[in-house]
Each structure stands twice: as structure tokens, then as C-alpha cells.
Write a structure and sequence with these properties.
By secondary structure, the chain is mainly alpha-helical. Helix content is about 70%, strand content about 0%. The chain is elongated and about 70 Å long.
């Protein structure tokens, strides 16, 4: 039993570590956007995607350890920590509870930072599209996405430059 609990604790620590890595990568990505370091930004997107895959593997490992504990206590395999922690020996409850709480809090921060970065990157792409449209003598083509909304910039911009010809 103690080995199962130690394995769960180690899995929770690893998950926490990986969320911390992701937060650091997202912070770095935000800095790259703010300083307009586009070459490094493209590389950071790949790094963030790689870290996302590592997190998925780490999460699956923790979920497996969580299922093992649930089976040990004869509760549903998908039992939450709210159900499992009170079943643990009293010596382990504070540590497991703290790790679960820290993981949840860090996951929320990662999600918030990812949303911020998504907005920053979307805004940067939008600004670049508007700039490109000012150089083009023809109005942009309006396209629609898969839910029927306008996908492109439908506003016709007055060109600052006349086409050479």
C-alpha cells in the first residue's frame, strides 16, 4: 500500500513539475511576442506543443496511479481525489492534498497564460494582415469558417500605395 501511495505522490510531483515547465515556456513565449522576436517565436510554438505532449503523458501516468489507489480501496476507478484523500493513511493526507491543490492552481495559471498568449498571437496576426492589406491594391477576399462566420478581414482598406504598372 505504501508503495502505491509513494508512486502517486511521485506522479503528482512530476505533473506539478511539468506544469511549471509549461508556465515558464508560456512566459518566455509572451516575452518573445512583446519583443517581436518572430524567429524565436516560431520555435517556441513547437516547444510549447512538445511540452503539451509531455504533460499528457505525465497526466496519464498520474491517472493510472490514482486508479491503482482507487482499486486498493475498492472504489470506482475514476474516483476523484476528494474521495481518495480521506481514505489514505493520515500521514499522507496533507501531502497528497497539498500536491493536488498545487497542481490544480498551476493548471489554472497555465490555462490563463495560454489564453493570454493566444490572444496576443491572434492580435499580432490580425495587425499583420491589416498591414498587408494596406499594401495590396485589391480588396481582401471575405472567407467563412466552418461555423459560418467571417474568417478573413472583410473591411476594405484604402491602399496607401498605388500598384506599379
Amino acid at each position: 500500500m505504501n508503495d502505491l501511495i509513494r508512486n502517486l505522490i511521485e506522479a503528482l510531483r512530476e505533473e506539478l513539475k511539468q506544469y511549471g515547465e509549461m508556465l515558464a515556456l508560456l512566459d518566455h513565449q509572451q516575452e518573445l511576442v512583446m519583443h517581436r522576436r518572430t524567429n524565436e517565436l516560431l520555435e517556441s510554438v513547437s516547444t510549447v506543443n512538445g511540452q503539451s505532449e509531455i504533460i499528457q503523458v505525465t497526466r496519464r501516468e498520474r491517472e493510472q496511479r490514482q486508479r491503482e489507489i482507487a482499486q486498493q480501496f475498492n472504489v470506482d476507478d475514476d474516483a476523484t481525489f476528494a474521495i481518495l484523500i480521506p481514505l489514505l493513511p493520515s500521514d499522507y493526507r496533507p501531502l497528497v492534498g497539498a500536491l493536488v491543490q498545487e497542481n490544480n492552481e498551476l493548471l489554472i495559471r497555465v490555462q490563463q497564460r495560454a489564453r493570454q498568449n493566444h490572444l496576443l498571437l491572434s492580435r499580432a496576426v490580425d495587425l499583420m494582415q491589416r498591414f498587408i492589406n494596406t499594401l495590396s491594391p485589391t480588396p481582401p477576399t471575405t472567407t467563412y469558417n466552418d461555423i459560418g462566420r467571417v474568417a478573413g478581414d472583410a473591411v476594405v482598406h484604402t491602399s496607401l500605395f498605388q500598384a506599379v504598372g
